[in-house]
Task: structure prediction
Amino acid sequence: VGSTCARHKQHRNSISYSSRGAWQLATMPRNEMLDCVPEVVRDVIAGGVSTAFVTAILNPVDVVKTRRQVGIPRSARAEALACWREHGAWRGLWKPGLTATVVREMLYSGCTKGFYPLARDAVAPRDREPGLLHRALAASLTGFGGSICANGTDVVKIRLFSQPDRYTSLMAAATEIIKAEGVVRGLLIRGVSASAPRGAAIAIGEVTTYDHTKATLRRYWPAAPETQAGKRRDPFSLHVVASLITGVIATTVAQPFDTIKSCVMADDGHRYPRGFVDAITKLVREEGPMSLFRGWFPAYCRLGPHAILTFPLLEKLREVLGLEHF
Result:
């Protein structure tokens, strides 16, 4: 009996301690709760969530852009209207590849925008502000790594965009690709020779441009007050202007890589067996150099608003998560 009573007493004490711990956690100030989460984890969450949210909104533009890049012989406007008439706005334009789009951005942008501040601080001298080359190097490293990490979902996304009637869902597409082409050749390395350089290029065009433009304009911009924790705060107007400039540069820099990536990932290995090399050679030889910029306008219609919405949202999320502005 005595041992039973002792066990009950110990159980009550454990409940008391766990309840006390939960209460302390619930009543802990928000800043202290955030400090319990590693800064790099909060960086990744802010980068992934902000980009995935905006990309989901702009998915119809991405669908049309990808179909133009893989060679559908009608204009972006004609393709959008045809999808609308045949299947409606949701089934024809928004739904294709939506889940794959969100998962892909959580992986790619989580790595690219999440690890970028860490990479930038690692490659830049400690005694002065990072320069353009330091920012470009950091962005290319995180963009390259993020593309490799997200390559499998990128392949599935492109297939769902270009052949929506063939696959019913992300899992169905991934399963069929694995059965027909294998995990490694079908998903992990399919088009990686194009997607990884594209990821590095778009990270330089987007992340480096935004960061460097904002750092340059900040010198002439009316400053916002610092937070109570002494962290730097930028005016919202500065975020918007830097985002506007970023959209144009990022689209132009990334477009050739984006076109090649879409062509290689939509192919099952017959037209472009050597991936990047075959795609760029055949496109330039058969259609001319400007074929690499095919779909620039729908790409800008996606990346322009994407940058304008993503970076201010990213800055706000970083603020909420107790991080400095980007």
